[in-house]
Amino acid sequence: MQKIVSLDQVYFAYDQRPVLEEINLEVVKGDFLAVVGPNGGGKTTLLRLILGYLAPVSGSVKVLGQVPRNVRSRIGYVPQHSEFARDFPVTVEDVVLMGRIKPGSLFPRRRAADLEAAAQAMQAVGILELAKRRFGTLSGGQKQRALIARALSSNPLLLLLDEPTASVDSRVEKDIYDLLRDLNKRMTIIMVSHDLGFVSSYVNKVACVNKRLKIHPAHQITSEDIINEAYDGAMHSLQHECRL
């Protein structure tokens, strides 16, 4: 299987404070990986290393066989927080087109190819009819779909999401996970989540991160022994400690 992401003995620290230690991870084409663990355990830092926004103190990070910054255009990213003021004059289409802006572009033009890619991304997530709506007037679920469309507009091979359902209710949460399952048919996905009970039926692997990383096939997460080992007790929510 083609390796999409490979981390080898990665160590990272902020101001000499260790955040990630001895991280080894391999994600292959078609994987849907959930990254779970306690707040401050290093989940978002892991995504930033994969994106190339951070560099490891030691060890190596490769995406598609290269250093991440060289293939960033093939990575879609949905951050944890991306808010616009309700009255900010930006449409859904404007937001999605932001995903087409290349680094260093001071005055990006809207080419026909960009408009077509944005329309295809909005169609893929079911919000094409909202293209001219002001982003700030959307519901929480619609906003998340627009942000996912922004990430999709660059036609990525890898999609990273940092808690994409943190601000939506359970019904919308299911809709978004159903959407991600469909997208996983054509791209590899890594998603940070706090809801193991919900995501375990969608993903094929679960990585528990708390400075160090331990990975399990999703079907093993139903094992009481695995849950006790990773989370210090039977879990219904990931708002608990992850012990490695």
Can you put this structure into words, describing what you see?
By secondary structure, the chain is α/β, with parallel strands linked by helices. α3 packs across α4 (140-152) and α4 (140-152) runs parallel beside α5. The protein has a domain at 3-83 and 156-231: 3-Layer(aba) Sandwich (Rossmann fold), CATH 3.40.50.300. It contains seven helices and nine strands, in the order βββαββαααβαβαββα.
CATH evolutionary superfamily of the domain at 3-83 and 156-231: P-loop containing nucleotide triphosphate hydrolases
- Secondary structure class reads alpha/beta
- Side-by-side strand order of the widest sheet: 5-6-7-3-8-9
Chain-averaged pLDDT:
87
Name given to the CATH architecture of the domain at 3-83 and 156-231: 3-Layer(aba) Sandwich
CATH class category label of the domain at 3-83 and 156-231: Alpha Beta
Number of strands: 9
N/C terminus separation: 28 Å
Low-confidence stretches: 229-242
Write down the secondary-structure element order.
Answer: EEEHEEHHHEHEHEEH
Please compute the radius of gyration using only Cα atoms. 18 Å
Q: What shape does the CA trace take?
A: globular
- Report the major sheet: 6 strands, mixed
CATH topology of the domain at 3-83 and 156-231: Rossmann fold
